[in-house]
Amino acid sequence: KPVAEAWQCSICDHIAHGSAPPEFCPICGAAAALFHSYEVTESSKTLADIRKVVILGAGIAGLTAAEEARRQDPEVEITLVSRERVLPYYRLNLTRFLAGEVAEEDLFIQQQDWFDAQKIAYITGEAQVIDCAARKVTLRDNSQLDYDRLILTNGAHPFIPPIPGANCEGVMVLRTLEHARKMIENLHPGSRAICIGGGLLGLESAWAMQRRGADVTVLEGYGWLLPRQLPPAAAALLLKHLEDQQMAIECDVKIKEFTGDEAVRGVLLEDGREFPADLVILATGVRPNSHLARQCGLKVQQGVIVNDRLFTSDEHILAAGDVTEHQGRVYGIWPASYTQGIIAGANAVGGSSEFSGLPMTNRIKVLDVELFSIGQIQAIDASTRLFEVQDNGNYRGLTCHDGQVVGAVLYGDMQLMGS
Description:
Blueprint lengths: L1 E8 L5 E3 L17 E7 L10 E5 L3 H13 L4 E6 L11 H6 L12 H7 L1 E5 L2 E5 L4 E4 L4 E3 L2 E4 L3 E3 L12 E2 L4 H10 L5 E5 L3 H12 L3 E6 L11 H13 L3 E4 L3 E6 L3 E6 L4 E3 L2 E4 L3 E3 L2 H5 L8 E3 L10 E3 L4 E3 L7 H15 L12 E3 L7 E5 L8 E8 L2 E8 L2 E8 L8
Parallel strand pairs: 4-5, 4-10, 5-6, 10-22, 12-19, 13-14, 13-19, 14-15, 21-23
Antiparallel strand pairs: 1-2, 1-3, 7-8, 8-9, 11-20, 16-17, 17-18, 24-25, 25-28, 26-27, 27-28
């Protein structure tokens, strides 16, 4: 029977609850007119006895999973386990924190009183072993948590390329609040900072450090910036904008080594050039934290394999967020983690929601430039066509494959984003 009013986005299938659709979809940005009414029905639990839900990982996927499980079942016992010794925070805003645009206290999503009111046990710990047969999780301090449903939302870790000198002091990554704090401690006006990687995180980190007064250089191995999100013509506009802002950019380069003894002194390229550095940030991608899943025998390829209901190969274990692989895709983006968290939380307590996939969407949030990218941008094969328009420093592009629109890019003018 219907139990609530809801609206479904016709673009990405996100479901929003309320008497009216949201002004814009929080996942893909679609306007309210693109929502249609959606009937939410009361579902029975697939197993008769689901009393304890344990969630490993307190990022956005874990937090939304806990919140939705509680919304669906007021009685189930929920434990959310975090490796970090802080409350859940907006990881997306770490570069804004690094830039000094937001205060540390503004990063946190919920405070402890919210967990108390929701009757969600929030504990600090690191899972070491999952015993699927006994349905127990053993933490580093040897304490154990029993579960009827386990949700893996333990995220991903930064990829450290095998470059000589990568273990030098001053070579850092940006993934956690602790990383951001350490970077801020090491930054001062005039610091020579180098970002390895011209993707979203690399550019946002570079911009943030420049806001702190550092002299920043970005080194990208690909032929242009944001190769996963932008065609070359749009990337050229971005490159010019950044260079006009006194940021040094080098594309199509290969790193030979990080020079220095205990502390990093510079970055040496294969062509013999060396860039002096007091600080080097590695923004070279992430890898799913799949080791626990492998150890306990779950199916894993790049990430933990899940079906449309986000169950793993074990009927008592689900997964959501950066650790998961769904239909061959590891998303690694906030909208997918948010949506998967909701679905996993609902299904963990007996729901039957399905994740049908999401288009890859990105929007730069720290650079003083408006940029939006969605779907497949680069050519898949000879049937791919790119339609581009440039005027007054703005860019609009549509990628088509076999007569279907599969991707879009906006640079500068964002008026078409919600159309």
